[in-house]
C-alpha cells in the first residue's frame, strides 16, 4: 500500500492507495464513530456497494445507505437535501461519519453534506473514478452547483482519510479513464516535467490500467496535488495553478451544455489551448505545445475545441470564478513543469480562439 | 467605543461596540473588497437600511441590497438561495463582502451564505437585536433550519468583524429585549458570578436600555462568549456550557411550535428548569435557584414552563443535538458562576418536568 500524507491548516490526513483497499474500509472509521452513512449512487453501489458495506460492517457499527441519483445534473441542493433528510430521519448525531463512495459528484456532495450537517461531521472519501482518485478527493474542495454556475456553493472541508482502491477502475468506461488521465498529465505540466515525461513513456500502460503504472500515476498525482494544497488550502495563490486548462475547459462544458464532454475531456482540450496561449504570451516553445497536444490525444482526449465563436468563448470565460474584478486570468506555462497565474492580453486570447474556429472549418 | 477581540483557530476579529456605530460601517470593509452585499430584511431595512447603505457607500464600492423575508420561518434553504441568486445574478466575485444587518436570523443566514458562496467569502456581522449582539453574532456559528431540526445545516465560519450599534435597540419590542437579557444573565450563571450579581443590581437600567448599563452588559457578554469560543471553537468541550438552559428551551420552542415563545424567552424559562435540575443533581443551593428564578422573571421572561407532559418533554429533548449516542446530557450548575456538561439521571429530570406540570394546574 502507498500512503500520501496531506497537511493543511484545515486538517491532516492520509491517502491510502492499494488494490483491494475497499475490503479494508473499516480501518478508516474512528473508534468513537456512532454510525456510518454510506453516501453513493446506484451505479457505484451496483458494482461495489455490497463489498463496501460488508467491510464497514466489520466495525460493528450501523451502516446507513444513502443513494443519490447518478450524474452531474443531480449535484444540486434538492439532491444534497436527500442526505440531510436521511441523516435526520435516522437520527445520526455529530459523531457519525459519512463515507462517500463514488466519483467526483458523490465525493463533492458527500463532503459538502459532511461539512454542513450539524456544522460539520467527519467524512471519508472513497473515490471510484480516476478523476476522483487523482483530483477531486484530494484537497478538501466540496460543493454543489447552482443554476447560475458550477460549484458555486460549497466549502473547504477536509476528509479524515482518502481510501483509493485501484481495482475499481476496471469497471470504468474508457472515456472516464481518458478524462482522469487529463488531470494526471496536468500535474506534470504545471509542476513536474519529469512526471510529464514519464506519462509520455507510459501512456499505453496507463490507458490499459496496468496496475503498476496506474498506481504510480495516482500516487504521484496525489503527492503533487497535496503539495500544492498544503501550500495554499483556500486558493488564495499557488492553488490556482491546479486550474491549468480549466478556464477553457469550463467554457467548453458550459458552451456545449454540461454532460456533452466529460470534465476531464474538456480540460484536456483546454490544456492544449492554454499551451497555445502560453506560446503567444510567455514564449512556451512550439515543440512543447506539440508535446501537450500529442499526449492529450494519446490519452484519448479530444484536442479540437468546439467552435463556440470567439465572442461566446470570451463571455463564457468571464463568468468563470477565476475572473477577479472582471479581468481574465489564466494559468500559463513558461515551460513544461512550471506555471504562472496571470492576465493574458485579449489579443493573444482571440488568436487562440479564432484559430480553433478556423481549424474546425 | 469598546472593542472586544475574538481569537479562534478559524479567525481573529474585533467586536466594536458604540452608540451610532452604524454610521462608521465603511471602516469594516477591507480595501480590496470588490463589492458589498447588504443582507437584511424589510423590517430592519425600514429602520436602518438607508443609514447603513449610506455609510457603506462611503467606501466608493457598489452596495447590493438583498432583502430576505423576515422571520425564523424563512431561515431555510429557499430563502438562503435568494442570497446566492442575487450574488450570482450580479456577478459578485470571491472578493465581495457580505454585511449581515439584522437579528440572529439574518446573521445566521448571511454568515452561512458567506461560508458557502464560492466556498467562502468575507462577511461582517451588524447585529440589530440584543440577542444577536450578545450571542448569535459572536462565535462563528452560522446556518439554517431543516424541517426535521433547527440549525441542523450550517458551518463554523467567523466574520471579519462584528459592528454593534447600541442605539438600534431603541426600536426593538420589549419582548425581544427580555429575550436578549436571558442570554446576558446566562453568561453570569455559567462563568461569572460577579456579572450575574451586577445584572441583579442593574436589571431595571437594563430593561430601560440605559446606555451605560446596556453597553457594559453587551461588552461583558461578548467578552465571556469570546473567551469560551476561543477555548473551543467547534464545540467539542467547553463551548457546550453556552447551551445552559437550551435543552429545556429548545424543547419548549419545538413543543409549542416555533414562534410561540421567543428563543430567549424559552431559554430564560429553561435556565430556571436547569437550575432546578442542578439542585437535584449537583446540590445547587435552593437560594441560588431562587435567584435564577427571580432575575429571569425580573428581566421579563416567563418562568412557568408550558405543560407539554413529561413523555413529550423527554422525546423533544432527545432530538436535540446535544444527545450523543442517545444519552441525555445537560449543562448544570454546581454553583452560580460555574457550569458542567454532564448526563443527568432520568429520575431527577422527571421530577423537574413533573413539577412543572403540577405547578401549572
Ligand atoms: N472537489 C474537487 O476538487 C474537484 C476536482 C475536480 C472535479 N470535481 C468534480 O467532480 C465531478 C466529476 O467527477 P467524476 O468525473 O468522477 O464524475 P462522476 O462522479 O459523475 O462519475 C462518472 C460516472 O462514473 C460512474 N462511476 C463511478 N465510479 C465507477 C466505477 N468504479 N465503475 C463504473 N462506473 C463508475 C458514476 O456513477 C458516473 O456515472 C464534477 O462534479 C466536478 O465538479 C471536483
Ligand atoms: N449563531 C449563533 O450562535 C446563535 C445563537 C443564538 C441564536 N441564534 C439564532 O438567532 C435567531 C434568533 O435571533 P433574534 O432573536 O435576533 O431573532 P430575529 O433575527 O428573528 O429578530 C427578531 C425580530 O426583530 C426584528 N428586528 C431586528 N432588529 C431590529 C431592530 N433594531 N428594531 C426593530 N426590530 C428589529 C427582526 O426583523 C425580527 O422580526 C434564531 O434563528 C437562532 O437560532 C444563533
Ligand atoms: Zn478538473
Ligand atoms: Zn440561545
UniProtKB/TrEMBL annotation, chains A, B:
Essential cofactor(s): Co(2+); Zn(2+); NAD(+)
A GO cellular component annotation in the UniProt record: cytoplasm
Gene: aroB
Organism of derivation: Pollutimonas bauzanensis
CDD domains reported for this sequence: DHQS (cd08195)
Broad class of the protein's primary localization: cytoplasm
Family statement drawn from the similarity comment of this UniProt entry: Belongs to the sugar phosphate cyclases superfamily. Dehydroquinate synthase family.
Superkingdom, taxonomy of origin: Bacteria
Domain 3-dehydroquinate synthase C-terminal: from-to ranges: 180-323
Compartments (UniProt record): Cytoplasm
Transmembrane segments: none
UniProt protein name: 3-dehydroquinate synthase
Start and end residues of each 3-dehydroquinate synthase N-terminal domain: 66-178
Pathway named in the protein's UniProt entry: Metabolic intermediate biosynthesis; chorismate biosynthesis; chorismate from D-erythrose 4-phosphate and phosphoenolpyruvate: step 2/7
PANTHER family, per database record: 3-DEHYDROQUINATE SYNTHASE, 3-DEHYDROQUINATE SYNTHASE, CHLOROPLASTIC
Reaction equation(s) it catalyzes: 7-phospho-2-dehydro-3-deoxy-D-arabino-heptonate = 3-dehydroquinate + phosphate
Amino acid at each position: 500500500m502507498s500512503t500520501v500524507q496531506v497537511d493543511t491548516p484545515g486538517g491532516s490526513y492520509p491517502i491510502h492507495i492499494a488494490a483491494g483497499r475497499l475490503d479494508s474500509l473499516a480501518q478508516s472509521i474512528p473508534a468513537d464513530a456512532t454510525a456510518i452513512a454510506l453516501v453513493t449512487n446506484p451505479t457505484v453501489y451496483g458494482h461495489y456497494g455490497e463489498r463496501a458495506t460488508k467491510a464497514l460492517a466489520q466495525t460493528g457499527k450501523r451502516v446507513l445507505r444513502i443513494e443519490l441519483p447518478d450524474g452531474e445534473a443531480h449535484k444540486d441542493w434538492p439532491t444534497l437535501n436527500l442526505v440531510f433528510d436521511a441523516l435526520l430521519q435516522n437520527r445520526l448525531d455529530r459523531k457519525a461519519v459519512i463515507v462517500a463512495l463514488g466519483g467526483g459528484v458523490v465525493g463533492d456532495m458527500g463532503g459538502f453534506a459532511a461539512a454542513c450537517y450539524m456544522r460539520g461531521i467527519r467524512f471519508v472519501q472513497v473515490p471510484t473514478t480516476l478523476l476522483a482518485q487523482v483530483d477531486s478527493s484530494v484537497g478538501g474542495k466540496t460543493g454543489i452547483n447552482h443554476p447560475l454556475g458550477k460549484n458555486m456553493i460549497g466549502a473547504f472541508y477536509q476528509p479524515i482519510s482518502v481510501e483509493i482502491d485501484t481495482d475499481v477502475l476496471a469497471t470504468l468506461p474508457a472515456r472516464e479513464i481518458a478524462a482522469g488521465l487529463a488531470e494526471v498529465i496536468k500535474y506534470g505540466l504545471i509542476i513536474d516535467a519529469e512526471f510529464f515525461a514519464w506519462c509520455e513513456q507510459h501512456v499505453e500502460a496507463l490507458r490499459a490500467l496496468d496496475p503498476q503504472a496506474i498506481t504510480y500515476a495516482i500516487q504521484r498525482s496525489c503527492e503533487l496535488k497535496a503539495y500544492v494544497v498544503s501550500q495554499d488550502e483556500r486558493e488564495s495563490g499557488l492553488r490556482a495553478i491546479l486550474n491549468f486548462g480549466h478556464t477553457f475547459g469550463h467554457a467548453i462544458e458550459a458552451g456545449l451544455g454540461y454532460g456533452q464532454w466529460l470534465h476531464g475531456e474538456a480540460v484536456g482540450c483546454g490544456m492544449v489551448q492554454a499551451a497555445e496561449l502560453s506560446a503567444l504570451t510567455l514564449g512556451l516553445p512550439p515543440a512543447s505545445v506539440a508535446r501537450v497536444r500529442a499526449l492529450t490525444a494519446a490519452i484519448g482526449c479530444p484536442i479540437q475545441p468546439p467552435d463556440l465563436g470567439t465572442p461566446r468563448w470570451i463571455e463564457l470565460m468571464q463568468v468563470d470564478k477565476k475572473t477577479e474584478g472582471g479581468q481574465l486570468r489564466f494559468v500559463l506555462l513558461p515551460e513544461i513543469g512550471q506555471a504562472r497565474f496571470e492576465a493574458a492580453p485579449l489579443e493573444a486570447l482571440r488568436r487562440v480562439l479564432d484559430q480553433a474556429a478556423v481549424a474546425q472549418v
